[in-house]
């Protein structure tokens, strides 16, 4: 029996599986999504500063891009570790190459649209990072998606991903509660930047980064040739100018778009794109509402204290996340692909366990595939590279766990998305 892998981060629904063409646009859903987006935009414009409405638009574009290109991280890692197909990982390298090229002058000169401070994601390297990234690697293969993949899968209607998201939030909240132990009681080095900690400067760090991306891309080609990796199957698409609105987009186009949008995010809010800090915030607010003394947690001390006491709509990561979900929803409806999918006890169990590991791992590792891997490497942080290696190791372990939950593992003879 031939098992086919789902597309990126397993968001493909039955309509997508059985057709290589898009359906008619789901106009009632599109109109409803636009109304919701307009209401949220007006609310943010009235109650928040100009940054929040702009971030909602950026998030919407991120979600639209992710869905139309089926661009993800979970399946890219799984494809490489299972059958040796590195096409998606090479798109990561292109994305990162464009990102470091844009981030370097922004970080070096402090460019910002609104004159505030600009800082990348540079985090410590220690036990917390190693354990958290490894857990995240397992979690995303069981939960069916990474951080960005979970958001856009929810926007696309994949029902089980609502379960993953719920337990992602719970795991992130528990991780926030436990974080002081992992960061203060266990060994760790200070944050290491390839630009500022090594004497290379941003120019030298950029050259080194481009060389590393080229080396990794070459290694994936070597692995593909050695394993005779199957090619990626096509996904539902259209032609002409309609492809811009209805998809699917080439991976290389999405890689460039995501890098540009991340740089715009950096210049808009002073920090790169992130996802999971909002999950810790949402869960902590619920815990606080239920009577827990969340403000006493080490995670919510100092600078974070004001975030906990403020409206979630003041949190820029929350606004970005809402935009990603809405953008993916509009993209799926534009392609006529939005449809809630069936779930069963096994994939719910995988979603629960995977979601908990995703959330907890993200907190320990100072971020997820977006904040630590994408944002960290784009910010020239060593921890971003280590995150990627450990997440790949977690993916390898998860290949042996997925069948226990009825989840497929690609075979060398398969043609897959």
Automatic annotation (TrEMBL):
What species is this protein from? Answer: Virgibacillus subterraneus
By what name is this protein known?
Sulphur transport domain-containing protein
Q: Which UniProt keywords apply?
A: Cell inner membrane, Cell membrane, Membrane, Transmembrane, Transmembrane helix, Transport
Q: Where is the signal peptide?
A: none
Q: Which family does it belong to?
A: Belongs to the TsuA/YedE (TC 9.B.102) family.
The principal location of this protein is: membrane
List where in the cell it is found. Answer: Cell inner membrane
Which residue ranges does UniProt annotate as crossing the membrane? 27-46, 52-73, 94-114, 160-179, 199-223, 244-264, 319-338, 350-374, 380-401
Q: How does it sit in the membrane?
A: Multi-pass membrane protein
